[in-house]
Design a protein that fits this description.
The chain has about 90 residues and is an alpha+beta fold. The chain has one domain: K homology (KH) domain (GMP Synthetase, Chain A, domain 3), CATH 3.30.300. Helices cover about 25% and strands about 45% of the residues. The protein contains 3 helices and 3 strands; from the N terminus they run αββααβ. A 3-stranded mixed sheet has the order 1-2-3, covered by helices on one side. The radius of gyration is 15 Å and the shape is elongated. Pfam families: OsmC. This is OsmC-like protein.
């Protein structure tokens, strides 16, 4: 997500983009199995860049190595919270 934002001129470093992931585990045959992951992205951003950030959020998982690797085994959902900064 950060790389895709940066490629479009939206700063993601220095604490501007924070991701919080929560996993849901279930027991299957007495083995704990990770079934779902939900990622909440919080992005401090200029209001003029919000629409671009929403577009990036809409496609970023298709190009994320982690999502592509485990996406067929674990359900992954994401949400984007935009925090306006500046004028």
């Amino acid at each position: 997500m950060g790389g895709a934002l940066e490629a479009r001129g939206i700063p993601a470093g220095e604490g501007r983009l924070i991701a919080e992931a929560v996993g849901e585990v279930e027991k299957e045959d007495n083995v704990l199995v990770l079934r779902r992951i939900h990622v909440t992205y919080r992005l401090r951003i200029a209001p003029s860049q919000m629409e671009t950030a929403r577009r990036v959020h809409g496609f970023h998982a298709r190009y994320c190595p982690v999502a592509r690797t485990i996406g067929n085994c674990v359900a992954i959902t994401t949400e984007l919270e935009l925090i306006p900064e500046g004028p």
